[in-house]
Automatic annotation (TrEMBL), chain A:
Family: Belongs to the ABC transporter superfamily.
SUPFAM superfamilies: P-loop containing nucleoside triphosphate hydrolases
InterPro entries in the cross-refs: AAA+_ATPase (IPR003593), ABC_transporter-like_ATP-bd (IPR003439), ABC_transporter-like_CS (IPR017871), P-loop_NTPase (IPR027417)
The protein, known as: ABC transporter ATP-binding protein
Gene3D superfamilies: P-loop containing nucleotide triphosphate hydrolases
GO MF terms held by the record: ATP binding; ATP hydrolysis activity
Residue spans crossing the bilayer: none
Species name: Syntrophomonas wolfei
Pfam families associated with the record: ABC_tran
UniProtKB/TrEMBL annotation, chain B:
InterPro entries: CobW/HypB/UreG_nucleotide-bd, Hyd_mat_HypB, P-loop_NTPase
Domain CobW/HypB/UreG nucleotide-binding: 4-164
Protein name: CobW/HypB/UreG nucleotide-binding domain-containing protein
Species assigned in the record: Syntrophomonas wolfei
One record GO biological process: protein maturation
GO MF terms, alphabetically ordered: GTPase activity; nickel cation binding; zinc ion binding
Amino acid sequence: MIDSISVIGGKDKDGAAEAIPLLDIRAGEILAVVGTTGSGKSMLIADIEQWADGETPSQRRILINQMPAGEFADDRVLRGMAAEVSQNMNFVMDMSVKDFLNLHACSRHLEQAEMLAEQVLNYANRLSGEPIGSQDKLTVLSGGQSRALMVADVALISDAPVVLLDELENAGIDRLAALKGLALQNKIVVLVTHDPMLALLADRRVVMKNGGMFKLHSTTPEEKLLLKKLEQSNRQISFWREQLRLGFTVNEEALKQY
Amino acid sequence: MRFIIVSGPPSAGKTAVMIHTIRHLLKDGIKVAACKIDCLKTSDDDNYRALGIPVAVGLSEYLCPDHFFAANLEEIYAWGSYHGAEILILETAGLCHRCAPAVQGCQSICVIDNLSGIDTPQKVGPMLSTADVVLISKGDVVSQAEREVFRQRVEMANPDAAVLSVNGLNGQGSLKLKKIIMESASVNRIEGQELRCSMPAAICSYCTGETMIGSSYQMGNVKKVDFGKFEKMRSKEPLPSSDV
């Protein structure tokens, strides 16, 4: 059981010590990782994913429950502790969704694989705009469908206590629902994002700069209030998007109806 | 000298991962030499040369690359020693899936990639099952689920190997691999060491340059497909005997 993970700061791109020397993340917390392109966001996620022990270019060390990850002697146990969904991932296996989910569940020696596969599919369909069928081939799923299925699968079958999400916003899925679904299960969620809504939905955000952890903010009550406004504007943008996607024209009248 | 033998299917990322790893070794002031064995052509030696280390290339050309590999190990070892290498990297390419270049006393590394299909760990055969270290590359472009399933298949094919995820593009995992290489034992003499898996026999007319198709052109060690009893009974003419 993981109660917390800690990132012990290493070096930034110039070899200077990171401004944040220690970052503790507790179970049930959502931590956003923000920063400009090339600031080191994905590297931070990669360090956590491989349980860095000073051997990566950043020289960071990751602790699990205050213990160095290296002390978890069995590498196979350690590996199951983090699961990732990133913008670059694709399904490459030539299989139906159902068969694949079964295969994944069996590979983790989970019981009632078929039932679990069905749950994943249901959850994925809540996240995805377009319905996913159990007989659909993995490789023909759209970007949005794939990402929805990956999130659902990571949450229910991989069931890792640490979930790493890299730029989910491009995925075309209901990302807020995805995030809330994951966080509810008492997991540690670390998400790299450029999306202000996701950043503010997180409990805290670490700001990356020049390869190092630069600042750490807790989301303020005022920011949480502003988030509501942002969500309102977002609904408006979504409405416009849907209008255009469905082939309608946009005019003053349509906007009033909304 | 530590003698590290690297193998794996084409385009799995063998050279890319080794380049990153050698860079880490060189940073620590360790002397490295690299040799590349291939069939007809290679340009990987340029990549190794760019590191400023001694590089050798062996092309098997008209010979079976596996046999060529085994027949040259002693000379490659001597070449590495001559250059004062503390670590000799031998990258093999073009070996068939019946073969494994693993040798007792040498650390054997097999590189396979996540994109190559779910059955690949089984298909690769002894190259993977006799390896000390299995590197899985290209995990960044497939789903978490596929990574997990693929890795499980690798562990089924070789339960004893250290299995490591690597990324040949950004070098992720290469520092860990360096550590594993440094922990491996030196080998003082390659002569008298044993291949972990015997090589396939093939002394037939095609070995000596025959190009014509048909039983009458075939001599020596020839094996035929067994189509099963039922098929044999149905066919009007008896199929050629599978006897050698």
